[in-house]
Amino acid sequence: MIGRDRFNPKRRLQPIARTTAERRFLDALARRVRYGGNPEHKRNPGDFGLTPPSSPRPGKTLCDDANVHRRSEAVALLQAGLRRGLVSAQTRNDWPQNVWAVTAAGIPLEAELENQATGSYHGYPMPHNDPLREDVLKRWGSR
Questions:
Q1: What is the pTM of this model?
Q2: pLDDT digits (tens, 9 = 90+) for 14-54
């Protein structure tokens, strides 16, 4: 994989949800979130139902490398990221632009909003040189 050396400087973690209302809002989003997927981040299509089925592009991080092979796994990780408050400060139609999660094997993932009307995201493993990677791991581990 070709490493990325530039990242969107607008990406930043939202402060941790402290009030009951903030936590309820994130929980409500977690119940409605969807995973659409992106064939550029898949070597094997699994049960994602993507068109084209898989189309890994050089330079893209692959979900396969994070052992995320089923849509249900991707949705569960999105839900966990929302419930833990690992969301971006930037929102679109109440949906965070990004949601972060960490797999059971300790691999940090980033999901990007692809449809603000439906709350659908696509995700990928975070590159090792991503400046937010350590922040995501630290916050995930503190919960």
A1: 0.86
A2: 998 889 999 999 999 999 999 987 777 777 767 777 666 56
Instruction: State how many domains the chain has.
Output: 1
Alpha helices in the chain (DSSP H): 20-32, 71-83, 133-141
Residue 124 lies in a domain: yes
Distance (Å, whole) CA 131 – CA 24: 29
Q: Alpha-carbon distance 92 to 88, whole Å?
A: 10
Which residues are CB-neighbours of 113 under 8 A, at least 6 positions away? Answer: 92, 95, 96, 97, 98, 119, 120, 121
Q: Is residue 14 one of the residues assigned to a domain?
A: no
CA 26-28-33 angle, 5° bins: 90
With CA atoms as reference, report the closest residue to 33 among 67, 88, 79, 85.
Answer: 79
| Cα distance between residue 70 and residue 19, in whole Å | 33
Pairing state of beta strands 34-35 and 108-115? Answer: unpaired
Cα 37 from Cα 114, distance rounded (Å): 9
H helices then E strands: how many in the chain? 3, 6
